[in-house]
Structures are given as C-alpha cells and as structure tokens.
Specification:
- By secondary structure, the chain is an alpha+beta fold.
- It is built from 6 helices and 6 strands.
- The longest helix has 26 residues.
- It is elongated, with a radius of gyration of 23 Å.
- The N and C termini lie far apart (about 70 Å).
C-alpha cells in the first residue's frame, strides 16, 4: 500500500516539476525573440552593404540596363519585387531575400543610381514549450557610384512592403546601429 502511494507521489512530483521547469522564464520568451531580431537587423544591413559595396562598379555599369542591373543586384539581395508596383509587391507569391534584404526600387534618373531596400531581422526564442518568433524591418536607400557606395539613409517603407513582409515593427533606419565593415 505504501509503495503505490509513493509511486503516485513520485509521479505527481515529477509532473509538477516538469510544469514548473517549462514555465521558468516563459514570460521572457517574447522579449528574447525581440532582442534577437533587433540584433539581427543591423547585421543583415551590414552584410547587404558589404556585398553592394564590392559590386558597386558593376552595379553602376548596369544602371542603364534593367536586366544587367537585376543580375548584379541578385548577387547581393533578393530581387523578387524589384521595380514592381505596389499591388505586385503586396500580392507577390514570394518575398525572396538574401541577407534578410530585398531590393525594392532602382532609380538612375538623377545621374546617380539610388537603390531602395527593405531589410529585416528575425529572432526566435524558446523556453520549454513556450516559443516566440519576432521580425523587425527597416527601409533604406543607398546611392551607387562607379567608385563605391554613398552613405545609406532611411526612407519610409511603403504600405505594400509592410503588408507583404508583415514585420511586427518597422524600425526607423536611423535607429539601426549598423556596424562598420
């Protein structure tokens, strides 16, 4: 009789301990995922900038040829919605990204090539059975010259890219601490 009661107590204790352990820190899971996403965002911007800088002469040379420019850009960032109208961006089957970045538009009309891009950072955290995924995004532009890139700066994200990418938050580019490469 005592043995079966001890077994039940042991089982109850193990179940209670398991529930307690999976709950420890669970209230912080979303914050950890958010923190990870915010750390990922500047790394992704820096990675895209580094690649674009290395290809600046080829990007500049391809500025007047949309096909060549897309090919060169595609070596660094996603181009699935490049120079598409808002409806095409909003309804795109895929939002293909490299380094967490997709090129949105190119403009060579002012005598320099200006690229507008969307970059996101994502974070995931798990404690026991509780998990969270968080995505933050930012929009930015960078001028391209034959000699390299100009200084990147923030631009407002279009409603279309925000609707399609669906980040939890759009972070202003000036709040993204991009590491120097």
């Amino acid at each position: 009789m005592h043995a079966s009661r001890d077994v039940r107590r042991g089982t109850l204790l193990a179940a209670t301990l398991a529930v307690a352990l999976t709950g420890c820190g669970a209230q912080h899971v979303e914050q950890r995922a958010d923190d990870a996403a915010r750390a990922d965002l500047p790394r992704n911007v820096a990675e895209a900038l580094g690649c674009l800088e290395s290809r600046a002469p080829a990007l500049w040379a391809g500025a007047s040829d949309a096909g060549l420019l897309a090919t060169e850009l595609g070596e660094c960032v996603g181009i699935s919605v490049l120079d598409r109208d808002n409806e095409a961006v909003r309804t795109a089957d895929r939002l293909e990204m490299f380094a967490g970045t997709v090129a949105l538009t190119t403009d060579a009309s002012s005598g320099e090539l200006v690229l507008v891009l969307y970059t996101e950072g994502s974070g995931y955290a798990q404690v026991g059975v509780t998990h969270a995924r968080y995505v933050v995004g930012t929009c930015w532009q960078v001028p391209v010259m034959a000699s390299g890139l100009g200084a990147p700066s923030g631009v407002e994200c279009s409603r279309a890219i925000v609707d399609r990418a669906n980040p939890a938050e759009v972070v202003p580019f000036d709040q993204v601490d991009v590491p120097s490469g």
